[in-house]
């Protein structure tokens, strides 16, 4: 897989609150650009399917790795393109350092030729996810 982007931010909330909000799939469209709805079946565990609607189409991701309260990796496959989004949280006192890395693999002709364009599109669309997440979680009062 080739790296599409890596971003990080610091969120002025404890790690437990950030994790709870990050894995509240029903609320994810508030900070995931282009996502209209999302839910997990059966929940936040390895192998779970995240079904979401984005840009008028139903899509799926799968949780491929999980360290509850700390890290989560999602894999999405669309034909010859596989994307991996990895979220990592680290406690920093009452704050949380969050990092998102996105990698993509393209297979077969002509997809391999389009790999750079796909990575650029991912970077343009999704590299603001953590900044948007930080904005949303910072302005809301969480339970």
TrEMBL record:
Q: Which Gene3D superfamilies does this one have?
A: 3.30.530.20
User: Record's SUPFAM superfamilies?
Assistant: Bet v1-like (SSF55961)
User: Sorted alphabetically, which InterPro entries does this protein's record hold?
Assistant: Polyketide_cyclase/dehydratase, START-like_dom_sf
Pfam families, sorted: Polyketide_cyc2
Protein name in the entry? Polyketide cyclase
Q: What is the scientific name of the source organism? A: Acrocarpospora pleiomorpha
